[in-house]
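Q: What would this chain look like folded?
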Amino acid sequence: MTVLPLASIPVGVLAERKPAMNAWADPVWAITEILLDVPAVPDWTVLRQDGPRVVFFAGVAEIKLFRTETSNLKHNMDAAEPRLWAVLRPTEATPGMALQLVTADPGEAHLFADSGNCLVESLPMPAPVAEAIQAFIAAHHQDHQYYKRKRDRADPDALGRRSRVEMDDE
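A: My prediction, written as structure tokens:
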């Protein structure tokens, strides 16, 4: 069963590739900017080239907002500076990376960071995105009471007791 998001916010992503400091390492990638105004160009279009440094329009991603994840979103929005996380994954196709997603959920970003082979960058959240997420939280967030489960009391008479004879047979 696929769960569909209740809302989504389209954003563009800029990524930069530059050579590594030595000849044996792979190029260094960085996600440099989240764009609200998405340019009408294909994914991985070269926007600027300054010597060996290349800035690409990595593509369009949708920040998906789910009702069940409002606690994580609220936690992010309560921070001094709310963040967005963009994820690139290595690929064989040129230029060597693919845009995986952009998220405002720190838990989701953490899952991709733990995978080890994805590039996860944290960027400041633009004000219009923050306003849209705040409105989503206001409309859908419900605080849940934490209930600590109480264990059943052990019945000492129900515990198995071994007789002296059984212990001697071992």
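The mean pLDDT is 88.
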